[in-house]
Give the backbone structure.
Amino acid sequence: MNKTIAKLIAILTCVSAFASYAPCVTADGAPSDELLAEITFDESGKGGGSFAPSIGGTVTEHGSIRYTKSFEGNDALTIPSNGADNYLELPKGILNGKDAATFSFMLKPSSGWAFMTTPLAGAQEYLNEKYIGMLSAPASITAERYNNSGARLSSVSSSGSFSNWQHVSAVFEENGTKLYINGELAASDSAAVDIASLFTADASTWIGHGNWGEGEGFSGSVDNFRIYGKALSDEEIKALADEADEYVRKAVIYEKNSITAETHFFSSDKEVFSVDGISGDLTIKTEIKNYTASDADITVTAGTAQKAVSVASGSEDEVVITMPCPDEEMCVSMTYSGKTSEIARIYAGVTSPVAAKADSAATTEGVHDPSIVKFPNDDTYYVYSSHHLIFTSKDLINWEKHDFTHINAATISPNTQRFINDNYTNTKMND
């Protein structure tokens, strides 16, 4: 019982210390593993130069920043312009005395520094950098940690498609760095870095800023920003990411507020694109995704057949209609909120081109930098390449080759001739 009371007193003492960021310790003097900062960007007073989150001390606003809705009832930090003067500054010394740290937050990046912590008051010096931070872009997210003396480690980076909201976590320890995206370990290393000496009482922490040169910035959005004074486990990060799934769902609904539908046609188990030569039943599968802020009652119509479905917001469903194969082309439509739109069509009278010749050295030609053109009232396709060659085809499968120097041998339209003269003369090709 006495031990329980002592722990409770230690936690209360630690919470009261957040305002000034005195080192937070337990009753026995060991560093606390408590959450050191949590900024939701829903705090009162934001936009007025500074504001105070429930955990983390006063946050100071610099330059041009905004707070935009990520979904109804929830704001996110948005920095529209990647300028060095547009950022948030957290109290100094947040990680003072720690030997590990975890940064965890929602991120929708365009470019730049999502965050940086550094003890340097001036600019970073190449090969002598001292900071931890995260660079972000729609195609890559990188965790960097440097305490260098003449040499530089490689970064811990993941490539992918990150233009929409992601949950990211970066774990920094003396013996390694881990980068998590949506709860999954995306990249890691085991390089030794003395990060504890970066966490000084006067170390700065910024959201949207880095101190390279005159300063570097960030553009994009950040939300639910948390700093921990320890290395979170895989399980703890997975729990945070699972919590963020609901965030992403609501954000997508708020941003899109739409319904999408995709239809596929099947004869037996084979997907088909034309009703020619098909007997028996045709199976029509329409996949519906609802991004609206409420449930949607939808009717899908194929020919004379109809089926209704109610799709909950943020979810998806499938409508399957089976009917005899039509004799002519048929459209599939969707009705929602009193409006009807065509979403797919299967065609009659579609013929496939003759089979292509088998590939061989004699029938296959490598083409560099090709451009393909088809002009109105001309039944021929033209491919132009940087090897001074033209290829012509009536069906996009069988091709005939023509040399630029013998272009008049090809049967081409006047528009095509003008196009070649304007864009593919030997002079232009050699420039």
Summary: The radius of gyration is 30 Å. The longest helix spans residues 234-256.
